[in-house]
Design a protein that fits this description.
The complex is a heterotrimer of chains A (268), B (280) and C (327). Chain A is an all-alpha fold and 268 residues long. Chain A is built from twelve helices and no strands. Chain C is built from twelve helices and 13 strands. Classes of the chains: A mainly alpha (268), B mainly alpha (280), C alpha/beta (327).
Chain lengths: 268, 280, 327
Amino acid sequence: MMLGVIKHHLKIFIKFIQFSFIQHFAFRFNFYGYLIDIGWLLFSIAFIKIFYLNVPEIVGWNYWEMLVLLGVFWIFQALIYGLVVIGNCRKIPQLVWTGELDGILLKPINSQFNVSLRIIWTPIFLNIIPAIWFIYLGFSGLKQPADLINVFCFILMSVFGFLIAYGLWFIITIFVFFLERADNLPYLPQAVIDNVSQYPIDIFKGKTKFIFIWFIPLAFVVSFPTQVLLGQLSKIYVIYAGWLAIIILYLSSLFWNFALKHYSSASS
Amino acid sequence: MKTLSLKSLPAKMLAKKYLQIVKISWTNTLVYRLSFILWRLESIILFLGTYLFWLAVYHNSAQISSYNKTTMLTYIIGILILRNLVFSSRINQAAEDIASGGLNKYLVKPMEYFHWLIGIDLGDKIAQLFFLFFELIAIFLIFKPPFFIQTNIAYLIYFLISSSFSILIYFYLSLIISLTTFWYPEHNGWPQRFLFDTMIIFLSGGWFPLDILPLPIYRFLSLLPSTYLRFFPLKIYLGQLELKEIIKGLILMFLWIIILRRLTNFIWQKGLKTFTAVGI
Amino acid sequence: MSIIEVKNLKKYYQVHKKEPGLIGSIKSLFKREYEDVKAVNNVSFSIEEGELVGFIGPNGAGKTTTLKCLSGLLYPTSGKLEVLGYNPWDRKHEFLKQISLVMGQKNQLWWDLPAMETFILNKEIYEVPQEKFDHVLNNLVDLLEVKDVLNIQVRKLSLGQRMKCELIAALLHSPKVLFLDEPTIGLDVVMQKKMRDFIKSYNQKYKATIILTSHYMDDVSQLCERVIIIDKGKLIFDGSLREIVEKYADHKIIRVVFSKAIDAKKLEKIALVKEYNYPSAVLTVKREASNVAAAELLKNFPIADLNIEEPLIEDIIAEVFTGKDVS
């Protein structure tokens, strides 16, 4: 029974991706967008290089390790923005105040799933290719082969990290149900999540660091998985990540249902 | 066809209209107080991330290119100030108006659409700067950053002049992006807006001072108007430019303003022709 | 067992009052006054399978709110609701698969894609088997005559075409219960008729239970045998259209065309003159007296044409709203 539900939602998820492809295939801007994206990527590497021409390490991370971090961060960004943020979270305020949310609630599929994944922005997934190249570059520089177990743990942790980031993003976005005119709300998590997770967690000190590890666990999104990949972090953190992901997802689901109850659709 | 000449209205009438628009925009910004607070929060957090990162980089008091810890952190704070002064999100509205057909309601009124945009921009900027003032106080109290205070009056004046030019340059650049919505209305012109916003942060020196890049790249970037949006004024403020470089830069900015203004006008006329009212 | 059962449904909203102006805005930051809006106030009724029922009432009467409660979108303040044996608020997937709510202008079609893509997505969401999907789709497309527009981007369709495609999207899963909220609003006269014809044939062909809300009388008089009148959240009448007419229309209308000039004052001895534009006049007269009055008119006046008519339903219902309570 449960398996049937998962299969059903998986099929629909594939449909969402298909839709996204169709829409963006017809979209003229793609080509130039990618060119600029590539340019931006190259500058990102240059950016880091410039730093490391002047300092040997930043909070204990050398150039190659930083390169790997950059790659992981880009993958995370592509996934979170492409799947959840651009098409979905950003549209939630609109869905709420126009009452369009009704249409979503009437469908016989999980409403949180629907509202979070309906509209996927596939062009951004292409960023994953250069991101993997960064990681490869980093490892070549470190002259250390990627340990298979590390890679596996890394992938697992990244999935957990993604779910954590999604959960946090979603919870913040849901506040639009309770606030008037908060159209900007889906952009707030961006500032925090992007900004914090793109750096190695060690640039924060003391209490702040503690908060970003255990309360707003952004360290688990990019920084910790990267460290696991590099073989620098104990595998126990994968377990922590798993638990945090489950807790945060559960909280997001509770909050979502609470918000729906509060939701009174605008009358005609 | 409407022309964009500011001389077409007697000055007083124009000023009155502007004032009214500014007032409405100011009120509007406050009504959307939550939106506004979020926007501020976002701005601050962005700043904090960059600031903390640079702080970590300079942990051992290194020197990067021509910047030591003090000048670099001053630069980072300067980026924040200029972000609020020069960059604005109100011009996005033009893209939305065009994509949705809402532009019609402005074209029908006896008022220049561009004046409307300028007014809104002003109103919004005033609100942003007002709050920035308090935020800066908080930043200085909490972080006690090593801040370089420019004492040379001449440099300060040039800084202010170049900043004003920056505001104009950004206004036209941003407007041009919004006007592309005439031909690319998909998603309310958001894709090109997003690309522009992302690139402009880097190109204006929002992540780091542009002159720490390799010389040929820096030379290339100096040809673009974006370098003058934040990087150039801040260089003046830091007193790191010779007088003749400053003058050269200011003249270049002025030329850019003229070019961009012509370009904007041209695109506007062309766009209006293409514009078909899209009903909802 | 009825397919839809509503018992003592109540839905109250809390709305906060805000004074206009700058002072009002500042005040509302600190203290807010709330007001109870009784959108639906103790409404009960039940509907059998295959019925086509009209909900009528003025704007803000509570029609849309009731529909939303029935489709699970709103959480009732109190009362018991059952649709197809389910509690709508649970929003169980099996329940949702069997209902459909169509609200006038709001859309579910993806704007930048052809309608066909939305149809296919819905097919997956509602888990409609391919064969059934093809069969139903073809039927609907034929009924609504939209074969040529299915593969054009929705944003490029006219309002009428879009509405037809919205309808198809809403019906592809052959819902047993269909809620239509103001289905003809904003449409021109021709489209309105087409829409009504479609609803009627859909009801007959598929035996779907349909509730439609409207404030256009023609929607109801053309389609519904049974009518529920709601006003200010209360159910005022539940019965057939004919019942309303018989119960509340205690008068009839006589239209007259005179062949020669007459003294209008003399008319008033026989009947109430509603309108007088020589050579026509519109008179109202008590129902029982209508025949006698007609005879009198024919005897005493030079008449070219005379018709006895029922009063307009709008007028009857307006009277129902303004005073006479059913319950």
